[in-house]
Amino acid sequence: MSHKPVAPSLVDPAILIPAARDAVLKLDPRKLVRNPVIFVTEAVAVVVTVLFLRDLWTRPAEAGFSSQIAAWLWFTVIFATFAEAVAEGRGRAQAESLKRTKSDLTARRLAANGEIEPIPATTLRIGDIVIVEAGELIPGDGEVIEGAASVNESAITGESAPVIRESGGDRSAVTGGTQVLSDVIKVKITVAPGSSFVDRMIGLIEGAQRQKTPNEIALSILLSGLTLIFLFVVVTIWGLAGYSGTVLSVTVLAALLVTLIPTTIGGLLSAIGIAGMDRLVRFNVIATSGRAVEAAGDVDTLLLDKTGTITFGNRMATDFVAISGVTPGEVAEAALLASLADETPEGRSIAALATGEYGLKTPALEADAVVPFAAETRLSGVDLAGRRLRKGAVDAVLKFAGIAHSDAPAEFHQAVERIARTGGTPLAVADGSRVLGVIHLKDVVKPGIKERFAALRAMGIRTVMVTGDNPVTAAAIASEAGVDDFLAQATPEDKLAFIRREQQGGRLIAMCGDGTNDAPALAQADVGVAMQTGTQAAREAANMVDLDSSPTKLIEIVEIGKQLLMTRGSLTTFSIANDVAKYFAIIPALFVATYPALDALNIMGLSSPQSAILSAVIFNALIIVALIPLALKGVPYRAAAATSLLRRNLLIYGLGGLVLPFAGIKAIDMAVAALNLV
Amino acid sequence: MTIIGWLQISLLFLAVLVVIKPLGLYMAGVFAGERTLLSPLLAPIERGFYRLAGVDRTREQGWLGYTLAMLALSLAGFILLYGILRLQAYLPLNPQGFANVSADLAFNTAVSFVTNTNWQNYAGETTMSHFSQMAGLTVQNFLSAATGMAMAVALTRAFARSQVSVIGNFWVDFTRATLYVLLPISLLMAVVFVAMGLPQTLDASATATTLEGAQQTIALGPVASQEAIKQLGTNGGGFFNANAAHPFENPTAFSNYLNIFAMLSISSALVYTFGQMVGSRRQGWTLLATMAILLIAGVGLVYWAETQGNPILGALGLDPAQGNMEGKEVRFGQAMTALYAAVTTGLSDGGVNGMHGSLTGLGGLVPMFLIQLGEVLPGGVGSGLYGMIVFAILSVFVAGLMVGRTPEFLGKKIEGREMKFVMLAVLILPLAILGFTAASAMLPFAVASVGTGGPHGLSEILYAFTSAAGNNGSAFGGLSGNTPWFNTTLGIAMLLGRFAYVVPVMAIAGSLAGKVKLPTSGGTFPTDTPLFVGLLIGIILILGGLQFFPALALGPIVEHFAMLAGQTF
After folding, report:
1. Catalytic residue among A22, A278, A305, A518
2. Is residue B523 a contact partner of residue B404, using CB atoms and an 8 Å limit?
3. Structural domain range at position B80
4. End of a domain among B280, B302, B322?
5. What are A505-559's pLDDT values in tens digits?
6. Which residue of A180, A257, A539, B216 has the fewest CB atoms within a 10 Å radius of its CB?
7. Phi-psi category of residue B531: left, alpha or beta, with phi > 0 → left and psi -120 to 50 → alpha
8. Nearest to B523 among A239, A460, A654 (CB)
9. Does residue B569 lie in a domain region?
10. Which residue among B246, B280, B314 closes a domain?
């Protein structure tokens, strides 16, 4: 089901060219004020530009230098806005296709007098009822209140097989922009246009409605605080230098300020956030807020449904166990006949086992009566030629046979217990009042899932399996799959109580669900992922929707959240570590005229004071561009314990951030000197 | 540098290491309200105090109540001390008949002792009556130290607790810190000091006739009692102007040892107390290791710089093997002066046993820089611990994201609210130090107080404000600080450094106490590993120290390089 996510190319001109235009538009200080670090940079750039114009008039000899500083300060700002614009552009490209399907739709609204009136889809209100026929697009998110139809949801899910949407039950939710292929349905609109979740996603990516997440806010406070501190440092240098009679030009101090404040992370912060959302969309998951993505990184416990996530969707028959006096062949035959009317996957797997392994032929059925499988009776069977064959849940079959639980043969009980103990599901087979044997149904654990859970455990994430099975069965599967804990015979209330209990202990929980009865748990969980195939109630309660409806997606979502946070942390560390080299470039340059002895601090051996300052400013601007790909792609992610992640990232981004600018500034200085720029 | 020198230094750190655990555990018991060794003796007294003051010791306070109580006590202490100094001529125990202290000097001194700074713009033996020394200064030595400890304990509780609004009762913590920790140890130490020959008398100065027949006044007073709490409470305000370089304050190598040991012991042990109270002794050791590494590096650097000496003097014919002995007491030598200089500044103590202004460029840079790092190595009693925790929070926040989770420290999520207060606190030092230094450097009447030309003059001003804002109290020397400008601005710097810092810290405590304590897992950012020590050191140096690099470059750094280049000013 899930698509291999494809990241758009980093150098796609269709994205870069509009981004360059947007980058200029974003220079508007009213917009830029949301980003204090870059706002200060822009203010400084304006001041330096004014000083350059003054220099042109009064000190033409200085103008060459101040023009270059001014230009590079502007580049610093533009590179930062460009980073954000590129991230938005990539996200927008992703959302554009969804958007296209939504525009120009006409809705056929059912008026109060019973007449049908065509209106533009954008004017729909919550509670409106619309009629959608085969071939038409559903005009908005809603719920089927009458009829059933097959719907092509490929516009949203990318999955071409149509799905059934019908009134009542868990499959009543429909999404705007999807196409009805057959029949007619009445849809009650449940979401006002413009706030449907596709719109919300587009809004989140495009930035207009993008709100800073809690961690982004906290990080912004740190960056603003640092900016303020360095502003103070630079302003006071002027006074301190005055003591020794050194007069420093504002241009030089401005250059120092911009290199010291954390422009690298300040410029890339929002791009990192957008790229995180974008990555989620590429995995066909829509988040209703950036906060949810962040929470995903913090998740301590994953609540995973057994079925479909840990095991393949359905149990399969693997063995027929006969009790004495009956041959396995007879059990197989009875089971086969009793299962012919059972269209569930389990029923079909019984038939497949009987015809395959036991070589039986599918008989032509001349039945007196067929008892199809039903959830209430929990058995299926057939009456023919004086035989009343039944197979089904053990207690249901015993009840049918009229045998008290204690009266059933000991052998039968042993077989049932043995199967249950190993995680299987025993089904009884009976002919009238005679018990014939047991069918062994088994949950097949998906290959590779155990390793995946082990990786999660290494990262400190517990996995909890939720299943309706009895505790014995659940324990067996749990140990086979390697989950940390399980909830057996879980009702939706149990799930909710479990989540509350875990949260009480300070843990963050992620879960996925699809049914209406999952909604309270989805709302309670810190990260609730609803299946696209789920009910509207579930989708409303969740803070993410998985368009692929794949329960394993939860693991990927957590990984995306973690990668987002790691990228943010790595670039912050890198940005702060950069300051050391910049000090060593600029401080001697500022004071060497007054105190020649301070040339000893010029450990990089930069060619001249002006070149040193210019090189530091150029490095500071270029590093933003150089890191845009990393901000968009995220730092390489690996599932490992926090200790080893920290060691690795601290080495690369901390130590790297310390050392790299020394080399970078030196290289730029050599180029500046070679080109005679100052 | 000599092996003996390093042995002396190592032995002292070892001695401190030995007392950290027992003293730390004892204090953890004291602040948890448990029965301790001294309870049979002191518990009735403690209860008596509460009854007298009407304090219900079972009623805990929220962060604001706790902070307001602390501010009220500090204000009362300030008014009391200011009053005593202004009226000392009319008060008893003034055998020398000293006049009332001037308004600006009284302000400066009162602020200085209330903030645990003990910056001295006066010469004790010629300004302060015995009453002012005992009832004024020594009392505040106890109160300001106990206040610092109470704050640190309150912040510690915020990490230990989960989802509560209260962080302790200030009056109780404050009383216990004084009664169970500071008083008994001070008492013991004062007696030891008396045995070592420190004067302890209410008599007036003695007048002696020297061999040359000249008259010499020998200042006396209750020195030993003040000396004990001066070091234990990391106050540093000496009885005499020369502080611990004076033979009556610090007569022997052993008293010098005891001085350094005393100032290090409680501050270091409190870090252990922190670990104990938050349920992770390892965390305590991690913070201690960070402090120790930076402090020992500082000691080593001063020691090295001082034994290297000054090549300019060498060129004039001085034996280079002597190193730099200017401003040092011969009975202490370079190793013990280096140790004292680094420890007193790493600690926010501020006592000195030599002239910091006479250290070489590099040697003078270190004490200044250690204060600028935020007085966390291990800092003043209490204040060092909470300062270090602020750095730990900062480190966790900057680098914690790198493990893919939003930052947490000891199970407490660090979010916007905490960062706001952390940044407010972190802003204070650069604001007070750089702001006032730059202003003073620009004002001709302020520059007139400077004792030396060239960059050393700037160092003097920078050191003064560094010491004041860092609540250290040591002086570089050379600067004539007893002027209205410096008395006032240094006073303001001290107030900012103490209260403008601690109030946001207490707000953090309030915010953290209300948060749920998260369980640790394999995905939790590890804060008790050598890696974290490295990270913390990096953050302290880069975020704590780098702000002062330009200022230092214009002062001690240029002095150092100029000295190497043979340049004088």
Report:
1. A305
2. yes
3. 3-204+217-280
4. B280
5. 888 899 987 766 778 888 899 999 887 766 677 777 888 888 777 777 888 899 9
6. B216
7. alpha
8. A460
9. no
10. B280
User: How many domains, in total, are found in chain B?
Assistant: 2
B262 and B194 inside one domain: yes
Look at residue B14 and tell me whether its pLDDT is greater than 60.
yes
Same domain, B265 and B412: no
- Alpha-carbon radius of gyration of chain A: 33
Q: Which residue of A has its CA nearest to B404?
A: A562
Q: Does B211 fall in a domain?
A: no
Amino acid type, B132: S
DSSP 8-state class, residue A323:
P
Which of A221, A590, A597 has the CB atom closest to B420's CB atom? A221
CB A506 within 8 A of CB B518: yes
CA atoms within 13 A on the CB side of A545: 22
The reply to whether B556 falls in a domain is yes
* B209: in domain: no
Long-range contacts of B415-418 (CB under 8 A, 24+ apart): B415/A214, B415/A215, B415/A218, B416/A214, B416/A217, B416/A218, B416/A221, B417/B511, B418/A218, B418/B393, B418/B508, B418/B511, B418/B512
Q: Could you tell me if B271 and B312 lie in one domain?
A: no
Stretch A1-25: mean pLDDT, rounded?
74
For A674, the token pair is 């070679």
**Of A506, A572, A601, which has the smallest distance from its Cβ to B401's Cβ?**
A572
pLDDT digits (tens, 9 = 90+) for A192-240: 765 566 666 666 666 555 678 889 999 999 999 999 999 999 999 999 9
CB–CB contact B398 A595 (8 Å): no
Q: B193 with B341, same domain? A: no
Same domain, B242 and B308: no
Dist. CA B12–CA B264, nearest whole Å:
10
- Residue A305: active-site member: yes
| B358 and B495 housed in the same domain | yes
Confidence of residue A1 (pLDDT cuts 50, 70, 90): very low
B79 and B196, same domain (yes or no):
yes
Contact B399 A646 (CB under 8 A): yes
Give the pTM: 0.87
Count of pairs with CB atoms under 8 A, one residue in A, one in B: 223
3-class SS at A490?
coil
B256 and B151 within one domain:
yes
